[in-house]
Write a structure and sequence with these properties.
The complex is a heterodimer. Chain A contains four helices and three strands. Chain A is of the alpha+beta class. In chain A, a hairpin with a 2-residue loop joins strand 1 and strand 2. The longest helix of chain A has 23 residues. The chains are: A alpha+beta, B alpha+beta. The interface between A and B is large, with 63 and 76 residues.
Chain lengths: 124, 130
């Protein structure tokens, strides 16, 4: 892996996360192999609407690469440094190629007392 | 949602590293095949794909096209150190609300616990309390 800040967790974190990640890996792998009606029943507990349909129409299982990705995602998602009702730590993101600090950023430099809803994600 | 709360809340999309990159855990229903970015330039180019998708949503949704359109939801790009992803535990997708830089709502982890409804409820509560 590269040195980009979110690499695979260290050994002990991996040991701690491995059972949960293994179960998730098994779930995704098994669900992919099931007939569609059964697949729908199992996935409907987790997804709904267009997300469910997209998942039903596709295959997600991906062997070792999937396991590594799940491990990494689980590691990152279970350790957010931002705490509820507290000011978030300095968080650098880019707008128009320039760095900005998300903790005091608003579109068009507006008032910071206006709620800012953030939607995190990627194209995939 | 951005259209519903225009003038009362601001919205932004934060583009993170790809959840299903073409050179990693690829799934069959991914619309855009994007290789995991190795530098900021690549990440900005990939974020532009998301920006285009957003623009398409706004132009096909008459209610949004009538308002501020694409400027309603600017796209921010996470750093190559993935500051946003690690600060909010945001991989692969998540919703959050900040007020004065304070975290007021952190949604469930996607895809299973990603809930726009929960975010709406939290935003309504915040707006009622302010």
């Amino acid at each position: 892996m590269s040195a980009r800040g979110l690499d695979l967790p260290d050994f002990w974190s991996t040991v701690k996360l491995a059972p949960k990640v293994t179960l998730e890996w098994l779930f995704i792998t098994v669900v992919d192999a099931l007939p569609r009606p059964l697949k729908r029943i199992l996935l409907a507990r987790r997804l709904s609407g267009p997300r469910l349909e997209r998942r039903l129409n596709g295959r997600a299982a991906g062997g070792v690469r999937m396991f590594k990705a799940l491990l990494r995602i689980s590691h990152v998602s279970s350790n957010p440094s931002a705490q509820m009702s507290q000011r978030i730590p300095r968080c650098t993101v880019y707008k128009g190629g320039l760095p900005v600090d998300l903790s005091n950023w608003q579109p068009d430099g507006g008032s910071s007392s206006v709620p800012l809803v953030l939607n995190f994600g990627s194209c995939s | 949602m951005a259209g519903d709360y225009e003038g009362r809340a601001n919205f932004a999309v934060v583009y993170l590293e790809e959840a299903h990159p073409a050179d990693g855990w690829m799934t069959s229903n991914v619309k855009h095949q994007i290789v995991q970015h190795t530098n900021m330039e690549q990440r900005i180019v990939a974020a532009a794909v998301m920006e285009t998708e957003l623009r398409n949503i706004f132009t096909t949704e008459p209610r949004l096209a009538e308002t501020a359109g694409e400027s309603l939801v600017p796209v921010l790009v996470d750093s190559m150190e993935n500051h946003a992803a690690s600060t909010f535990g945001a991989l692969p997708e998540r919703l959050a609300i900040l007020v004065d830089g304070e975290l007021k709502f952190l949604g469930g982890k996607g895809p299973e616990d990603y809930s726009v409804l929960a975010c709406r409820e939290a935003l309504d509560q915040i707006l009622c309390g302010s």
